[in-house]
Amino acid sequence: MTDMSAPGNPPFRPSMLIYDRRYRSMTFQVIVFILVMALAWWLVNNTIRNLAALGKDFNFGFLWQRAGYDIPQTPIPYTSDDTHFRAAMVGLLNTLIVSILGCIAATFVGIIAGVARLSNNWLIARLMTVYVEAFRNVPLLLWILIVFAIFTEVMPPPNAFRGDDPAASMILFDHVALTNRYTAIPTLAMTNDPGSLDLGARITISWATIAFVVVLIGGWIVRRMIGAWAQRVQDQTGSRPTTWWMSLAVMTVPSLLLIWFFGLHFEAPELRGFNFAGGLNVQNGLVALWLALTLYTGAFIAEIVRAGILAVSRGQSEAAFALGLRPGRTMNLVILPQALRVIIPPLISQYLNLTKNSSLAIAVGYMDIKGTLGGTTLNQTGRELEAILLMMGVYLVLSLIISAGMNIFNSRVKLKER
Amino acid sequence: MSDTHAQTVPFVRDTMLPPAEPPIKEAGAMRWLRENLFSGPVNTILTILGILIVWFLVSHFWDWFAHSVWNAASLSECRQIIAETWGEGARGACWAVIRERWNQYVYGFYPPALYWRPTMAFGLLFVALAPVLFSEAPGIRRIVLGLTTVLTLWLMVALGAPAAWLVFAAIVLVGALAISERHVSWLLVFSVLYPLMGVWFLWGGSAWGPIMVLVGPVLGWIAWRVMHPLSGMVAVIAALVIPVLWWVGYAGEAARDAESIVSFAIPAVASDRFGGFLLSITIGISGIALSLPLGIVLALARRSDMFLVKSLAVIFIEFIRGVPLIALLFVASLLLNYFLPPGTNFDIILRVIIMVTLFAAAYMAEVIRGGLAALPKGQYEAADALGLDYWKAQRLIVLPQALKISIPGIVSTFIGMFKDTTLVTFVGLYDPLKSMSDAVRASTSWKGIYWEPYIFVGFIFFLICFAMSRYSMYLERRLARDHR
């Protein structure tokens, strides 16, 4: 017994780098580090040699050269005399437009379809199952092409709307015209235009827009203050003052006043000559892409919503009813907070997917960032390396922003555990 | 009281009444209708809305489907037939295009004389999959393998396969059927060899290439056996390094030398002849087979304690998940030439498979990470308590359970990847959906045909993806061990 040596630290031997668990992970990480560095060096070295062999360099100066191509749909003023950088910005804005519109619409479609799939109504539930399965199991590209083909092949040309007895008619009370080249929709017009704020680089923002944003944010802050005041009164006296009409007034009255003040109204498109004018002629590529992305992503969101609702056990709503909560409050206070916790994380990844899938715009000729920076600019300047790296960087930043924003929202709704 | 009562009762029924029919509202179809379609005002409105939707769809598309034409040489002929049969102005579907271009949709521009090769490869794929997918369900396995055998041999005869290959396919298929009755796991040997065999059947060329690739692991095994008595660690390193050295340095030359000595080649088919569903399925199956192991490795790396390994995995996964697949495909077609040594130029399909695999592996890693996180901590602790080392614990305890939990996610990643194979159209490959339909429309006889090709391709994709999702549900049920 006395022979047993004390478990001191044995002297270091090289074999311990492999056999001792304390050192092994360090050895392994060093090897990985060396391998990764070697790989990176190899790739960079190859790239430098290849660029040298082609007589090319690596710089982004091409962004400031004249673009020389037109873009059909430009959210900010753009002509072919502008730079490639501005073209890329137009493309980025187009990507953002279709992504944001798609996310909003897909959420609506998804919630309706997801709830309807759980409906007691046999027919509606079956119809929604067919919708979800059909859209989930067929490539998105197919839906984009089909919707685009419906627009270009089935819709009438603009001049079919002409004459006393036209072959085609506008829909939605003569406000929207579906043609085979574009969709004419009404624009917002003002009789009392306050002018615009010039941000430089030919980008302007109407003062009316700024006024609406200010009023809405102000209304939201006042509403929060009313809520806090009501909470204080409730804490002190035990009865909560009725505030819903105050909140409603704060949120709507200033906006209505602004609408009246600026004389805001819809201006419907009219046929002038062979084309529609007055409204906004939205390129069919955008409409087709938006519809297809909405319906496709909506099917996935429907499944997420359904799973979220099913995840809240029945006992929760029974308990809420037993406590005497009305159905509306049960939904708001008990079921939704729990269902949202399940729904939000996969919903975020669906929004990300939709944004990335919007790069399929090249199939319908909608000029998003893939079409401008990664398409025409790339082909004109021959700078594949810079253009594609820049484009991937933009998508990466977009994805990171979306997931960061939604993660903040997620951390607000998620279960607060002690 | 009771006595008097008993005596005063004038009538006591001594037989049961025949059971009455339930009220008509509470039975059969009426009850079902009332409960499921008209249980309240809201429900009734919804039902009417649903009927209107169905009616709208049927009234718009029924005549088009009813007036289908299956036999015509061109779109104008189709329209003529429709006008003659159902009167002027009638609409109708012209499925004749599918019939006429069937081979193009299935095989792309593959040489028609060699159609039997992809067919045989596809048939043998089921033999390779049988021990993986249907190992515990003999009934289903028998049906699948039997059907595969009959269909493959019949199609090969119909496509004019050489007799020697017919015999080869018959031996493999019937042999697999016989072996699977006794020892299903023996078929795993075939599953391991199949990828090389499949590549050889599809692309053709000298058989020495795949054989020399196979020599790599054999050399590694020999090295391991030789080194093992000296040092275990050195043996493992040698077994890993020697095959890589062999593949990089000597395999190509050895294959060429062997070919010049004894030629054993079948006609080679270049990648640009691939197209249609052959291309989709080739990319899809390779991507599925490669992305699962890569995804598992990435998921384990992301949960590793080692800082460097973990951060590399996070960077890789987040980068891949942050960019669209199209951007990665453009990297494959335009940028890969920059990143590789000057003068390297390798196959575009292989490049696309690599990119699709990396893309799917990043998503797979996240799905499997979810499964690993969902596993109760006690399982990890139990593995440690048993004294298992890291790899044994993962292999025997953690991964089987984690993978089982993540089956739905894994399969939906597979489905997503298979659908995404259509995007290869943007790098100039002939996918069945866009490029092939455009190619069909480019001919004068089928100019202006839109709906039929799209519906046909969409239907095939639906069948495959729907089958995959149903299989995942079956697998989930079969593997369910708890909550009985």
Offer a few descriptive terms.
heterodimer, A: about 425 residues, mainly alpha, MetI-like fold, 2 domains, three-stranded antiparallel sheet, two-stranded antiparallel ribbon, 12 helices, 9 strands, about 65% helix, globular, B: about 475 residues, 2 strands, AA_ABC_transptr_permease_3TM (chain B)
Could you explain the architecture of this structure?
The complex is a heterodimer of chains A (418) and B (484). By secondary structure, chain A is mainly α. Chain A is built from twelve helices and nine strands. In chain A, helix 8 (284-311) packs across helix 10 (327-357). The longest helix of chain A has 34 residues, at 21-54. Chain A is globular. The mean pLDDT of chain A is 84. Chain B is an all-alpha fold and 484 residues long. Chain B has a domain at 273-484: MetI-like fold (Orthogonal Bundle), CATH 1.10.3720. In chain B, strands 1-2 form a two-stranded antiparallel ribbon. The mean pLDDT of chain B is 86.
